[in-house]
Amino acid sequence: MDxxxxxxxxxRLLRAYDKARPVAPIVEDxxxxxxDDAYRIQQQQVRTWTAAGDRVKGHKVGLSSAAMQRQxxxxxPDYGHLLAGMFHLEHQPIDAGAYLQPRIEPEIAFVLGxxxxxxxVTVADAFRAVEYVVPALEIVDSRITDWRISIVDTIADNAxxxxxVLGSTPHxxxxxxxxxxxxxxxxxxxxxxxxxxxxxxxxxxxALVWLANTVGPLGITLQAGHVVLPGxxxxxxxxxxxxxxxxxxxxxxxxxxxxxGPHAQxxx
Length: 268
Prior knowledge:
By secondary structure, this protein is an alpha+beta fold. 28% of the residues lie in helices and 29% in strands. It starts with a helix and ends with a helix.
């Protein structure tokens, strides 16, 4: 794709945010688009958001579990940017109407205490870079109609990023056995999924290593203080106004997201 096509595709996705109306898959109008093109489209949107005053506060790895790859019909991980405006406090109302087609998923989030720059990052390097971990809920959303996404579509759409809720109590990395940590995922008091950290590329730390080594050659450093979401432990589940979502991870405790309508958001 040439630069004008990149601008066109990025503009379509940005308008989907502004108009709250999903668009047709990018690959329908740009059938020759590659994964590299998709990341260029993603970066163009990030530049637009940061120019408007938002800030990059971390990254996410998407599609890092077999369950999510099967659900989305793709076969490789991807990454996206986490902007400051995406973060929500747990137990506080989140306006469900701000999203188009929201789903939610449980994760083990890393908060970095030092920079991590690839290529060449090892698991040992990644462990040293993590300051603490918390349970997290990621709201994934798609600007593509009916979630009809290919790998190109989801990457272009900032890895289908939507929102982030972090648990309130930090834990040192050695407090949890990442691959074996069990997770229970519930909506409105009903368990909708269970799994272990090993569902995420064998261990969430492997996703952090993959991310650092993937973005490093592009000139991107994972910065101290930033959040990294390594990927979902279970399938993502649809969510709507009125839902209360809880993820509990062994050794880390729980995190709660409360989905509400705009009136509840204003009252709080």
